Amino acid sequence: AAPYLRGARLKADPEGKSPEIGEEWDLVIGLEEWQRFEIEIVGGLFRAGKAYDSLEGKLAHNVILKVDFNF
Hints:
With about 70 residues, the protein is an all-beta fold. The protein has strands spanning about 20-30, 35-50, 60-70. The chain has a three-stranded antiparallel beta sheet with strand order 1-2-3, with no helix packed on it. A hairpin with a 5-residue loop joins β1 (about 20-30) and β2 (about 35-50). The radius of gyration is 17 Å and the shape is elongated.
């Protein structure tokens, strides 16, 4: 158990009382149909575990759209 998560993009920090951080599900969809153009959509869902004490069971989400033009 630790009172922080290094590199996590969550706004809440764990309480440092439990090692059960939670669960995360990710979905990545990429499209590379064209020679120079790529599209990627990334979605993530996180459910806080016992390490977050009063926030246990709360959900956090993230959606990223990435577009690359290669030349």
